[in-house]
Amino acid sequence: LDALIYREYLDATYTTIKNTPLIATDINEPRIERRIPGTVIYTRPGERLYVHVLNGDTKPHSFHVHGLHYGIDSDGSWPFGVQEYDGPNRSDAICPEGQWCYIFDVHEDSIGAWPFHDHHMHIEEVVKRGLFGGIVVRDPRCEKADLEVPIFFHRLTANVGNALFDSGSFNAGDLFTFTFNQEGTFEYYCRFHPMQGRVRVTTAGPLAATINILDTPARFESDDITVGVGAEVTWNHAGNQPHTVTERSGAGLESFAINGRTFVGNTPTIVAECGTRVRWYVFNLDLSMVWHNFHLHGQRWRWGNEWIDTRSFGPAESFVADTIVPPVILQPLPLECECKPHEYTEAHPLPMSDGEHEHPSHSSQSRGKHKYSSQDACPDQYLEKRKKYRLQGDFLIHCHVEMHMMEGMAALLRVMQEVELSEKELDRICYQLPTVRVHECPDVEHHPCGGDGEDGWELLEPSPIFVVHGALLNTGHVLLFSGAAERNYPLEARIYEPVTRQIMPGVINLPEDFFCCGHTFLPDGRLIIIGGDTNGAGHTNNRCFIFTSNATNPDSGTFGPATSMAHARWYPTALSLADGRVLAFSGGHPVAAEVEVFGGGTWASIVGASRSFDELYPGMHLLPSGEIFYTRAGWAGAAGTQTAYLTLTGPNNGNWTDYGQQQFYDRQEGMSLLMIDTTVSPERTRLYVFGGGVSGPAAARNNATAEMIEFNGGIVGSAWARTADMNFGRTNVNAVILPTGKILIIGGHSNGQKWSPTPVLETEIYDPTTDTWALGAPLNFPRQYHSICILLPEGRVLAAGGVAPGTADPDQHSMELYSPGYLSLGARPVMSNAPPAVTYASNFMIETSQAADINAVVLIAPIAVTHHTDAGQRYIKLPIHSRTATTIGTEAPAHGNIAPPGFYMLFVVNNQDVPSEARF
Description:
The protein is mainly β.
């Protein structure tokens, strides 16, 4: 803690600290050495105060008080003070280790609450570090309050030095320009609003850029730019509110605070009995251009000739307000409501009170004590025995400027109340009685009404290897590797363990450089790897390997050789077929036009199926009707304008048919995936392509778009249709199907190719049923070229790899874990049993105690992804044919074109859209 405070001592040698709490019943108030402000001084008319100030800081300071009577020797305002006779100290500049005695007279016209603060130099800066306090002049004629509460609204910031650039406050139409003369990444923010931005300076960037400042919502547009060394960046104030452009590393990010703390649970939680009188001493020590207001929930005070519950006040303004603590529940009880009978459980017990005693009324007109009874209102209901109950309720205290409150300028009045209730009254109360939990914040379900819930990213330990390829094994572990990656990285793979959220220590050696290979799963769960790099010119690798995990030691496995392909393939796509064979498409260099098939341990060419896929990693998907559909998603630019499908006319024969043009047919560095619904007949198949678009004609690309084509039992009669647009344009985008049937969009960049310096950190979730997008929690690190994202059996998503453009070492080793919002929506359904294997078109049972609440059964193929390409990612919704209290009856896919043979994750999803964990 590097705050500056005025600390009050009880002796002339400054050794005995006055440790009286600022607020007697604030359960969150920190110990004296961490308290902000350091003190509040209480006095009364007729007194003379001698305030001896010793400067324990390394810089000059002074002491300036509002509202009292003083001479110029005690004003403390630089440079209008006086100098001591025999030393350097001044009344407006006490030197380090120096002292000054300030003298104040307290008259009747000083009754009230008055702030004091440093008035030497840079007043706002030191006040924001905590160098302030208050003097309260009590009114001897006023009725004594049960509780005195000094409340300070202020900003708090660390002492981190001077910002590299700081515009100061500037207004609509103003410009601020700064020249960046060195390489680096420079983050900045607005001191007044929750706005942040970043300027990346490289040797090759443009030499000028303009950033607009907007109000609705408050933001810098664009908030992440790249310029060259020597570039001038101009911020154009295009809004109406005052803003600043302040570099972050040399200027602490400010907090909106109450009594030196921010956010409920840290700020004051003031415990008070219902009906008691609270005297509030309210100070605004935010000396900036921003005003605040003081708003109390459930309370009012008289201001002039009216009653109010909110008052605005400006910098260094203060006032006094008397209120009566409100009741937790109203008395007499509103018994007009008709409620269903309810029971109290261990989770929601009755808040019983011990003993019989009186409690105060909550009337704002009287503070007399009385014992509550409502027999006069409804005498027939109160003949039975009544019991006492101890209740607790939290009432907000906050600034009603929404941004200030949401950034932490809020506190609580925690009210305690005793009531007498009969059994009949309990049955007429339509809610759970609030129990006493004095030292805890309420335990509240974040999304009691459902919705998407609260999502978030968790940073994991960095990976010891650069991750370009990832595959979810049927053991539940994730195989990660990259190969040499043209940087001479060691040829090794690692295993990620989802339970511990760590990479296991074992090293699995790669027999070849698998960098930029293709992969998919075989029916027995092994991973087949095709092609890749040779760490030499031409990237001519035609070899094939199969990874087998170790059943007894998940930290190990082997890559065994298989028959080589006829053609070298670098950036190829591998696709599993209904008969368990594997197709290989594309790959270079040069680009292989021939399609090959792996089966029975050997490779063969598909006669008649040659097609040049210059884009590499082409998007291919097996349809339920048996055709292999080409979506134009890929790594490089694609020839022509048409999508297409391959029909296998025999085991080793096939031909291509063009099949319609997308609205935006440049899908370079986009991603495609497949969703099948077998709950309808014929099954409904939807192919989606997201983002992409780099080198095609301008009219052919729009990387903020997504398109879908739907098939119902066959290949004919369908056309591409544009869905709702994403919120952000993305190339090098990853898409992951969630168990709920929604699609998570992760990473990419807003323009350019590969190492573009415009990463998109925000995630998005697409709902196919409503054709709508929702923003999700942002990534911690960019996930662009060479990144992976994998759905895990627990329902979370692992993200790793990618490049961080503009850095000396762009290959990212960071890893993070996404928790979708459905994990915050309540208890998850649990499958107690399900068959480990099923045959096509067979019925099978799932055991779950939540059977009545299950509305979907889902199969999802394990992801094996690289370069935003996974031909095997598919979602299959199964029908529910029967249901008991503990079982769900469903049906396996009809054939291998719907679900190629192999391992799948089985999920059940309840009516709240919360999925179970998966079973393989």
